[in-house]
Amino acid sequence: MFEARLVQGALWKKVIDAIKDLLTEAKWDCNSTGITLQAMDSSHVSLVSLNLRAEGFDTFRCDRNLSMGINLSSMSKILKCAGNDDVITIKTADDADTVTFVFESQNNEKVSDYEIRLLDLDTEHLGIPETEYSCVVKLPAGEFQRICRDLSQIGESVVITCTKEGVQFSASGDLGTGNIKLAQNASADKEEEAVVIEMNQAVTLTFALRYLNFFTKATPISNQVTLSMSQDVPLVVEYKVADMGYLRYYLAPKMEDQDD
Amino acid sequence: MDMKRSFGKGVTGNRNGPPNKKTRVQDEEEDPSAFEEELALMDEVENELAGDDVEMLDCMGSGPAYVSTSSKWSRPPVPPLNPKLDRIVFQQIDVDHYTGRHMPGMPGSTVGPVPIIRMFGVTMEGNSVLAHVHGFAPYFFVPAQPGFKEEHLGTFKDALNNTVLKDMRSNKEGINQTVLAVEMVSKESIYGYHSNRKVPFLKISMAIPRLIAPAKRLLEQGFQCPGYSQHGFQTYETNIDFEIRFMVDSDVVGCNWIEVPPGKYNLRDKENLSPNDPKHPPQKSRCQIEIDVSWEDFISHNPEGEWSKVAPFRILSFDIECAGRKGVFPEPDKDPVIQIANMVVKQGKTEPFIRNVFTLNTCAPVIGSQIHSFHKEDELLAKWAAFICEVDPDIITGYNIQNFDLPYLLNRAKHLKVKNFVYLGRIIDTISVLKEQTFQSRQMGKRENKVINIEGRVQFDLLQILFRDYKLRSYTLNAVSYHFLQEQKEDVQHSIITDLQNGNDQTRRRLAVYCMKDAILPLRLLDKLMCVINYMEMARVTGVPLTYLLSRGQQIKVVSQLLRKAKEQDLVIPSHKVDPGEEYEGATVIEPVKGYYDVPIATLDFASLYPSIMMAHNLCYTTLLNTSIIQKEGLTQDQYIKTPSGDYFVKASQRKGLLPEILEHLLSARKKAKTDLKNEIDPFKKKVLDGRQLALKISANSVYGFTGAQVGKLPCLEISQSVTAFGRMMIEQTKNHVEERYTVENGYRYNAKVIYGDTDSVMVKFGEEKIQETMKLGHEAAEYISSKFVDPIKLEFEKVYFPYLLINKKRYAGLFWTNPQKYDKMDCKGIETVRRDNCRLVANLINTCLQLLLIDRNPNGAVEHAKQTISDLLCNRVDISNLVITKELTKTDGEYAGKQAHVELAHRIRKRDPGSAPQLGDRVPYIIIAAPKGTAAYMKSEDPIFVLENNIPIDTQYYLENQLSKPLLRIFEPILGEKKAESILLKGEHTRTKTVTTSKIGGLMAFAKKRSNCVGCKSVLDREGIAVCKHCQTKESEIYQKEVSHLQSLEEKFSRLWTQCQRCTGSLHEDVLCTSRDCPIFYMRKKVQKDLGDQDKLLERFGPPSW
Q1: Which residues of A touch B992 (CB under 8 A)?
Q2: What is the predicted ipTM?
Q3: What are B811-833's pLDDT values in tens digits?
Q4: What is the pTM of this model?
Q5: How far is residue B789's CA from residue B241's CA, in Å, rounded to a whole number?
Q6: Whether A124 and B1013 lie within 8 Å, measured CB to CB
Q7: Which residues are paired to B805 by β-bridges?
């Protein structure tokens, strides 16, 4: 028996919206410590890693380890049926081939439940080892989303240069070039507007904007986003999920000789 | 001297003696290859027959004249000929003409240049013959000006002559008489009904064919004959090829037998014995017998009875190999020709009597064939050209020789300045040159071809024939041989060829065997498909030279027949100006009542519908009327008919049409050929007769097409639209007759219903459950309805479909019964099983489902099978060769308007490895791979081998939705119902299990760590280097054994596949190089190879076995 109840049901909606464009289906691994999801997109350029700890849920019960294969577009369709203020409970029996979503309205006047069929997915378990990064940049999530969207008007890839002074995003294309500089601004009035850079070594890396734009779909989850970078290793884009865990994206850097 | 040695090798190769075939089969270890064995066997058989070894001479003739150096190569010697007593009989195979001088004693113009017809052929004894036919002059007709008097013919001639002369820009040949004669003749135009009145025409004979065009232009522009007013003449028969004109007038048809009686010809001598005698010029060709004859003096035999035989033509098939550089398609000015394999067969024999290969550098002997090694490439080419001249083939074939082999050889020889290479034809002083030509026809679309003139030899490129006659998924020689012969060959990439050439004499031997196989396969295919016989019969039936059938469109065949008939009736054909007109309504289709029919469905067909309509209603150019003619001639209602399209034609009582007559002739000839076929016992003659009846059928049907071809020589919309209108009407009438008569009221058990009808057939559901009963009703209905139509229109009952699945217009499937005991076959029309633009998975799945549905009558089984296949697809269990889609690369990148998958892929492969990139005209194989959302479909194509090697995930969803779903739903909807089919097949339980493969490439793969799973329970392991988790530790040895046995099964599978490939390659002690993209075995072998590697790694995790 697996059951997880979350009062702020809207969080589920945000999480699904953040990954459904990158993955078509995924395995949700559940155990007593929480729910994790780890999967690469089909072209093996990026990886999504989601971790929701058990204590973040209002009630959480998982009798034995199980992994649920779910088609994410189906899941998104179901979650659209939930109101923003609804309490969402996800549950399944141990050997069932379906998963049930229960939506309760705030005032307990309305309870709806939806069931979707599970998929049996046979995949390999891949992960990126944790390492120390040369640069860790923390910036407002909305700002990052804006940067990625704006620069994708100019070109297909963005060059991120991180120095002590600040971080620069630049793109160039047929119509010209674009540069956005953010200065370190740890002492901002509001915490969510701060730009904080921790660095050991300056880095310059190139990434495909196409994927970054997929990642920034997670913006509603958190006010701040963290970019961790080292030379020639994948970028980590992390959104904290309040009190529960994180949603991380890994993206391979573009090599110089690659043209697309 | 090298030559001598290598000849010796070829022969002494027999020293070991070809081993007994039976012992070989048992002992496969020693088996060199099936193909080599075949070669050896051919040698054995031959030696038994001949009794003695063939002697090879030291040198080959290198002069351009015909030289005989080896009794095996050259033609049999000519028996002594006495022109006064001996007749010469030969089958002509090619007709052309040249411009020469008048020969004394021959008819025709005596001054200036004259056209001379050349007929090449072979006698029954196998001697080659060239006949120069003198005295035939080209001509055309114009209607005489009103009031033109016969005594002014001379004036007309001189005036026209002067006008044409003045018009000529240059006059190199020194023509001073362009117009030879003008005669007054009584003729009638073929176009329209003229109450059978002939009117005076002028027959204008010109000096040479080239002059017809200016004469025509000048006459049409307006020409003034002294004493008459200026007049724009309409010209007749100006656009007739000179050869056709000659053949029509002398009753010669393509490939028929020509007899030259004794005393009527002059035999030419090899050397110029009498240089001053213009009647005895020396031989101009490499033919054994060369004669001069007047066009009035030879006898042309109709290809009937005794004269339907076929002479022992020599058919040469060859193939070349070039040593290309890596990454570039061979270019004749850089890459050498390293081998040329030749196979020569006599028409009517199955095995070639000459089997050899010309190699650059040494080559180990191959039993059953001769190897001629050369140190220098120019020597090789020169000797090959000499070989051609000596073998003197009548037909040259091969695979894509027209656009690759021959042009390459010519360009290469030119580059190396090889002397005498260009003299490949039979005419001594004519060189073969390369030209580019664009050919366009409805049948084949637009194609760019290279054309090489080889006088007297017919180039019969098998690839061109296949393009013309067959629609195939792939046109590689390998795919084609597999399709028709179930025989595979090794497909060696051209980059490997260079490596083999640079190896030792054994690797070159390997190449030689490969090359010879490529040369023999076209011969086998020609034999199997009976191309030569069928084309020859087509030439005989339609009366055009053999070469025309390959190089020209359909129309020339009808023109030739029309001319022959028109000549008999003093009709002349106007020269039509090309002017594309309006379209007309085509055939009708009765709206299908879609569904799955579990009762027998009878099919009623009109036999030769369009020809019989034309015959029944006397539709022809000569019977065409319009309202003004009807009034002028005062025709009464019963003398003409009005067709359903509103056109008028006179009835046969007034004038019998020419086209109906041609058709009657063709159809009665076909009937005769069919009866002869039944009575004939000789298998070779049977083939000839079968080829003929087929040719006759095709010809009869092409007559209608000719009248409808707007860009044709003589289109007549009134005829073609009347024909289709009659056809439509008859289909409707048949439907009504059937449904009126076969009703319960009339005492039948059920009401019959016409469920579908198309062009010339209707499908009737009589309602009876028994096939026997349905057949009885079918026969009865056919007879009853035939009686309602004008003779010779006949409705035939041929077959019953039971069960029958009617999907849509022109899409149906059913079991085909012609007798009630056993079904004949499963017949599918317009269903994916026969289409080429999808992957093989679709064709196989649909085919199996149809078989389960129709033959086994097991709809549940069919559904289960479809589900299983879909599940296999999603779990990545489908063999990759089944997912390959191929498309032809027809244009260069820039020319494609939209981006297309195969073009993009070709582009990407070119970047990766330019050598293996597809060339223009290749069919590009590709796989659709998974890609992020929103990626355009054309970017998702990938090379199958690349996919296989890198384990790239396949876009299974694409295959399910874009390839499988539509065809599957089409066949299952009539059975399961529309909504249900989709939810059962595409959304069911079986679609919920998926395997996601992990690619070896992709940006993140370099960084990602694969966490090992426990071999036993698949849970993620805490540390690396171990095989099982702690829960499974107890079962470790059991798991280990299971994995070892899996490894063994993979090893066994691989060994089998490898052996299969070795057999196909024909060698057991050499590596298999084949990378044939058409071969499912190749993909399987690659896949197992990879799986084997993975499995091996997995076993290593258990650590070294220890006790």
Answers
A1: 69, 97, 117-120
A2: 0.79
A3: 888 888 888 888 888 888 877 66
A4: 0.73
A5: 40
A6: yes
A7: B596, B813
